[in-house]
């Protein structure tokens, strides 16, 4: 049974449709991601699944609990890390954790054991008694991960979890999340517009203008775009082009070498080298392989690259949200 089940989930703000009849399942222990630009409907979907926003129509369930009719049960079974910081900077890190534990009725002995092991994992043990206002952005994010996992949730929601962090800190954050997923069978749902972050996912739903336009594993999505691009530089590109064409390859000259598309480019290169070495004056001087990327996938599906939306777009959505009372 899927941990998350969503059917035709829709959210409108007045005349604007933020999420347009999305449907998907997430399996237990899976890392599932929504990849798309700001304004695509990622955060709105998370807010509905976490009972922070009422759907206009459609259904959703978390751990078998309906997001509309069993909200308290949903909230007890999830952890949520927002885009914006939620820590009280007037308190220490430990005091923030204590407050969170009280909210979730975590028994004191369980709290101390759980907090200690999580703080050790994210390397905050020696700093947790300092004021949060002295923490770096990465330290705050790590503390929020501890808070999100403190009450042993079945599902962890991460809404743009590493936005604004440097690449090294982002990598460490994902090491922590993956470690907990592997150890506890945690199901993870994240939103992101970072391609390298999306690569962490077992499956990705590509969302654009409120609709899911594709959903599969990163490798399957990239394979669907096309083959690998092999670039060759030879002693005589014109002669090499003729030899490749005769050998059944659809190659072209780029002015900086030869380029052709083929499946499993790394395996094709030795064959290409042998073919050209057997021809006159076609010795291969260099060869490289470029695999399709998730950027390529997004461009193929939407006709444009993922990009940051104008701040006015976000302001407009927030304004509509506020005007309609957040759907509550």
The largest beta-sheet arranges its strands as 6-7-8-3-9-10
The number of helices is 12
Overall SS class: alpha/beta
Largest sheet: 6 strands, mixed
SSE pattern: EEEHEEHEHHHEHEHEEHEHEEHEHH
Mean of residue pLDDT values:
87
Query: CA-to-CA gap between the ends?
Result: 29 Å
> C-alpha Rg, in Å?
24 Å
SSE blueprint:
Blueprint: E1 4-13, E2 16-26, E3 31-35, H1 42-49, E4 57-62, E5 65-66, H2 71-76, E6 78-81, H3 93-103, H4 108-121, H5 137-149, E7 155-159, H6 167-184, E8 187-192, H7 195-198, E9 203-208, E10 211-216, H8 218-225, E11 228-234, H9 237-246, E12 251-253, E13 258-262, H10 265-277, E14 284-290, H11 294-302, H12 311-323
Parallel strand pairs: 3-8, 3-9, 6-7, 7-8
Antiparallel strand pairs: 1-2, 1-4, 4-5, 9-10, 11-13, 11-14, 12-13
Helix pairs in contact: 5-6, 8-11
Question: How does this model look, in words?
Answer:
Helix 5 (137-149) packs parallel to helix 6. The chain has 12 helices and 14 strands. A 6-stranded mixed beta sheet has the order 6-7-8-3-9-10, with helices on both faces. The longest helix is centred in the middle third of the chain and has 18 residues, at 167-184. Helix content is 39%, strand content 25%. It is α/β, with parallel strands linked by helices and 328 residues long.
Keywords:
39% helix; single chain; 4-stranded antiparallel beta sheet; 328 residues; disordered C terminus; 6-stranded mixed beta sheet; alpha/beta
């Amino acid at each position: 049974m899927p941990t998350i089940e969503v059917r035709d989930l829709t959210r409108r703000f007045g005349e604007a449709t933020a999420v347009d009849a999305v449907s998907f399942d997430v399996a237990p222990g899976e890392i599932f991601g929504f990849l798309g630009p700001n304004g695509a409907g990622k955060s709105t979907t998370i807010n509905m699944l976490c009972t922070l926003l009422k759907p206009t129509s459609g259904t959703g369930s978390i751990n078998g609990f309906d997001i509309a009719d069993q909200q308290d049960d949903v909230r007890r079974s999830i952890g949520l890390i927002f885009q914006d910081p939620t820590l009280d900077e007037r308190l220490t890190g430990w005091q923030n954790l204590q407050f969170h534990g009280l909210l979730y009725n975590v028994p004191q002995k369980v709290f101390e054991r759980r907090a200690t092991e999580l703080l050790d994992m994210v390397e905050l043990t020696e700093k947790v008694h300092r004021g949060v206002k002295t923490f770096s952005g990465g330290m705050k994010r790590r503390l929020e991960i501890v808070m999100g996992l403190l009450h042993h949730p079945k599902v962890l929601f991460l809404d743009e979890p590493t936005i604004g962090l440097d690449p090294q800190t982002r990598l460490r954050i994902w090491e922590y999340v993956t470690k907990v997923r592997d150890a506890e069978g945690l199901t993870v749902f994240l939103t992101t517009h970072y391609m390298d972050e999306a690569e962490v996912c077992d499956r990705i739903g590509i969302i654009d203008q409120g609709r899911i336009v594709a959903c599969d594993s990163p490798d399957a999505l990239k394979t669907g775009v096309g083959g690998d691009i092999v670039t060759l530089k030879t002693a005589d590109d014109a002669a090499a082009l003729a030899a490749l064409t005769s050998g059944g390859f659809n190659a072209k000259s780029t002015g900086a070498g030869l380029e052709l598309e083929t499946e499993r480019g790394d395996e094709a290169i030795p064959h290409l080298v042998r073919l050209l070495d057997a021809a006159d004056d076609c010795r291969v001087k260099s060869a490289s392989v470029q695999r399709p990327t998730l950027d390529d996938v997004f461009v193929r599906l939407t006709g444009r690259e993922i990009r940051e939306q104008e701040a006015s777009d976000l302001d407009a959505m927030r304004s509509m949200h506020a005007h309609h009372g957040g759907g509550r």
